[in-house]
User: Fold this.
Amino acid sequence: MNNKLKIKISVRNLNIYYGKFLAIKNITLDIPERSITAVIGPSGCGKSTFLRALNRMNELLPDVKTEGEVSIDGRNIYSPDVDLVKLRRNVGMVFQRPNPFPKSIFENVAFGLRIQGIRDRERIEETVELSLRRAALWDEVKDKLYKSALELSGGQQQRLCIARALAVQPQVILMDEPASALDPIATLRIEDLMRELKEEYTIVIVTHNMQQAARVSDFTAFFLTDEDRAGMLIEYGNTSDIFTMPKDPRTEGYITGRYG
Amino acid sequence: MVNPRHIFDEEIRRLRTDLLRMGTLAREAVDKSIKALVNRDSSLAEEVIVGDDIIDKMDLDIEMKCMELIARQQPMARDLRVIGTILKTITDLERIADHAVDIAKIVKILADQPPLKPFIDIPRMCEISLSMLDDALKAFVNEDTELARKMCERDDLVDALYDQVFRELLTYMMEDPKAVVRALYLIFIARFLERVADHATNVGERVVYMITGVLKELNV
Assistant:
């Protein structure tokens, strides 16, 4: 990997258990700042578990144990003094199915600001507009900001969820299969948006769709399960290298559709 | 609504520009090699030989870029034909430049020997071959199938000139054994130019394929 890039997220010897089951095993990797890193691999290889470890979302599930270290800007997010609310504001998340609140478009984006206690009407309006612009949605919704978010198309709803994540000014955006519920054109629009967002944010995306990883990401990590069904990191590198000359035969087998 | 693949489009556009630049360098190499022959200019010939490294590097760089785009962007339909055309065309351009080097090497050998005869047909062959290449590249840029088809027809002129040069030089060899080496070298040069025209024809055929999706030989 390119050594010149500044590391944003550093993962060291990460193990995650669901009860006694070891879901991911000894993952160590560095995620560079202002880039898109894709995690690919077959179902059940621990991709989403890994992603949720990056903002401690796994803790919302019962009986999860995490070992190892995840540092963002050099600070271990698992140390006891970490403020979880601040952490999740800094590390936003976008999910597989667009999940707008049953509120207006405006209120969806303003939501994070309101729960932060921000009352300044002007500031909220500015942030909502800026976030919608950054999410490449503004032009499509500026005349119907007070209509229900549920009236938007799937692709628009997903961009709204991205705008909602951007409104609280995160540095990292985690995306779990952000386009799997969208049609091909809406998918390409989300990918185009991701490329724009990486100028300012560090993006980590989990996807089943390895063509999507090939198109959009700068770096690709390939996960696979071992004989005990624990997810392992098999190979990690520049996306161009992974998709034109992978080093590990298992990566080659997976991306050529012959394995996994 | 913004085209969601504008970055991919930009990459293809850049590839097309690179191909054009490579084509321009290859045509200049051939042009210089024949100028060096006519003017008995060894240093110009040397320039052609040295300059080939740039063209060889472009060949590899463009090929790698095409491979990366195929792997990462999953090109379809027209996008796929454009990338396929570029992949094939760089090989023809690289060969054209190699023929310029072949000619330049002979120029350096002939520089030490007295001239055999004034050059008429060989510069003419060069002119037609390069006009074919120019039109093939122009057809690529402007997506002009008509121009591509027309340029391929001129391959017959180059072939006819080659036969003519061959017959003429044969008589020189029969008349004077001391002329054999020089005449043979000139036949080689004519042969290289004839090959340049063949490669230009290949480029024209690929351009027609790129635009129409129909792949066929335009001059058999």
About this structure: The radius of gyration of chain B is 19 Å.
